[in-house]
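Subject: Protein record for review, amino acid sequence with backbone structure tokens
Category: Structural biology, sequence-to-fold work with a learned token vocabulary.
Format: Residues in single-letter code; tokens as whole numbers, each standing for a residue.
Body of memo: The sequence and its backbone structure tokens, given next.
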Amino acid sequence: MISLLLSFVVLIIGYLLYGKLTEKVFSPDDRVTPATIMEDGVDYVPMKTWKAYLVQLLNIAGTGPIFGALMGACFGPIVFLWIILGAVFAGAVHDYMVGMISERNEGKSIAELSGIYLGNVAKWVMRLFSVLLLILTGTVFVNSPAALISKLTPKSLNENFWIIVILLYYVLATLLPIDKIIGKLYPIFGVILITMAVCIMGGIIFGGYRIPEISLTNLHPEGLPVWPYMFVTVACGAISGFHATQSPMISKCITSEKEGRKIFYGAMISESVIALVWAAGGVAFYGTTQLLNSNLSELGQSGVVYDISTGMLGPIGGILAIVGVVACPITSGDTAFRSARLILSEVTKLNQKSIKNRLIITIPLLTIGAVLTKLDFNVLWRYFSWSNQTLAMISLWVATAYLIKNSRNSLFSLMTAIPGSFMSAVSLTYILMAKEGFQLSSSIAYPAGIIFATILFCFYLFKLSRSKRSTD
């Protein structure tokens, strides 16, 4: 329990100190934001800070910090270290930088930002990669709530029925102005997500559950190595490339650059608190990583959330679990498709103020998502997890290029270059080793990942030295 409480303290201090440093490096000012200059009543809509924060939290979170944290907890309490260090020094910096750089560039997507700061090839790679990730995300977050609702309703209303209902909702959320559905529902669901975490934490404390203290021991019952599997499994809660597709959505709505730290850095730290609670809850409730892992295999992520909630909190916990596991993934799925629409609108140059143009992009996207729901959830999640972290890697290098060019001291770019190098090693090592990748041995994958990250960091140093010479 002491390790968990200290982890919360580290996150708070991280927000107050490292978050402030991150803000200082970016240097927000009093310029007028795109929400005001480009207001269109659809995507560019001014929002109050508290609402923008809650919408951002739901955009990036959903059940990501719950499902990912529970699967990550199978490695044991070592997962606490990755959540807190990953969030403070990588994830929150990543979200803040992408959101604020987007705001400085008329609310453009991460794909367009890649083109501006890394070149045309990077732009097209990121267009394809980010749209693929968003479709996978939207699909992943259709299956899990549909499966749970079908268990609670008559047999005639099966999983396929609820998949159709959720996809129809996605059509509305993707098409309608951001303040009509998302702006009204997300603050409510944000409070529910936070309430779930608070209640589970209360259940751990007052239920007398034991939480092991942090150690570097790998306790995964299937013998999966911590490197790189844990760093991919726990994406939401530590660092997630999906967030790079969501932050530009809110960058179109913020009314002051100086509120960016509260919205972007703050939402990521909040998500990490939620992830910590659920990681601790999984280990505490089942007692061992063996039991946690076996229940995840048998019941699925949604079933384990329901099991923990009802076991710790009784009927009230069951209601919270149902609302949370149904509402939270849906609130990530709808904004995933919405972000994909915005990226494709940049590619096609279709003005999104027109409902006809929104339909032209939205209908094919949702059709692809409907087809993908027929695939196995666990397979989808693995591909989602890897593509997630790869997108985070690229986004950090975009932020690095921005800081080299625009910060008062180009050495500040180390703030994103170091986590960018780390995630580069994670991403390549994983795809070389994983079942859905090349299935190579660690003796090949580990050196390859390190060499890849080293090459990228050396290229960064070369660019940095050129930048310093040009300014001297």
